[in-house]
Write the structure tokens for this entry.
Amino acid sequence: MPPDVFTIFLDENHCNNQKLLDVLREAGVPVERHLAHFPRATPDEVWIPFVGKNNWALLTSDARIRYRNNEKRAVQENNVRMFYFSTNNLSGLQMASALKEALPKMKRILQRQPPPFCAAITKSGEVHVRETFISAAEN
């Protein structure tokens, strides 16, 4: 079972979202920010493996990662645990509210669902595993 403490990697679009950072800090969740590790516009298939290798959970609004071959393969081959906001037009405050509600559910999923997977966070803070993959280790 994964440890109770997990680290969230905020992608480039969210790594400076102060409202998300505040929610995570208040919850005691360690955060890694995209721009602390990569320059702007680094292709997703470059940084996604880094998230998996560090056993961090990805938080993004880019649900399309699930459909783009190179990115989907990076999630699968690197056992990434990906959470994404299911609605891409939420304000920072709405995302923060959804994340605050979602964090306990995310923790349960991280404890029970082996990687790799993609899970959606709804506007109300519900969390649903949408896609699981065969991990690279099982191939």
